[in-house]
Amino acid sequence: MYLYLIRHGIAADPDPLVPNSIFSDEIRPLTKVGRKKITQVAAKLQKLELTFDLMITSPLIRARQTAAILIDSQISPKLEVSQDLKPSGNLPNWLIAWNARGTSRDIASLALVGHEPNLSEWAELLVFGKVCHKLILKKGGIVGLKFPDHQVGIEMAQLHCVIPSKYLS
Predict the structure, then answer these.
(1) Any idea what the Cα angle at residue 102 is, between residues 88 and 93, rounded to 5°?
(2) Does residue 149 surpass a pLDDT of 60?
């Protein structure tokens, strides 16, 4: 199985009138430039014929908007939302839920749309078994991981690709 970690596009800055507000962060939308770049990423993925059997996104607005652009571009036929993909998300919780799914064997290619530093840390954990802080996924970038079977776990992945957004937009 292939797992692609996709960072959301460029989002509006947090509301300066509501410092340190989680609520403010959760409703930050993609900017016009962010929408344009993710649309370009989707077009490049179409050209590369890279599609996903399933896409799972963080519930935060900027991630959902990123996923919606990819879905609208027919990069994936199905979209789900997972609380584990929020910035405070938890990889072990997500892994337990994913591996417990009865349908996961039908998925050859899965995309997760989320945030930093989660996605880079998750990629490092899935490949190396520890967080090294050497991988930084820029907005709109993609990390591809390959698992030898449909069991997804820590230190079980091979790094398949790292695609900075500048090569996709």
Answers:
(1) 20
(2) yes
Tokens coding 64: 């959902």
Between CA 21 and CA 12, with CA 62 as vertex, the angle to 5 degrees is: 65
Dist CA 68 CA 73 (whole Å): 8
Rg (C-alpha) for the chain, rounded Å, is 15
Write the single-letter amino acid at 1.
M
pLDDT digits (tens, 9 = 90+) for 76-95: 999 999 999 999 888 999 99
Q: What is the CATH number of domain 2-167?
A: 3.40.50.1240
Count other Cβ atoms within 10 Å, centred on residue 57: 25
Q: Write down the pTM of the prediction.
A: 0.93
Distance CA 118, CA 33 (A): 23
Query: Residue 72 has which token pair?
Result: 């609208």
Dmax over CA atoms of the chain, in Å, equals 48
Residue 10 tokens, joined: 């460029």
Is the peptide bond preceding residue 117 cis, with omega within 30 degrees of 0? yes
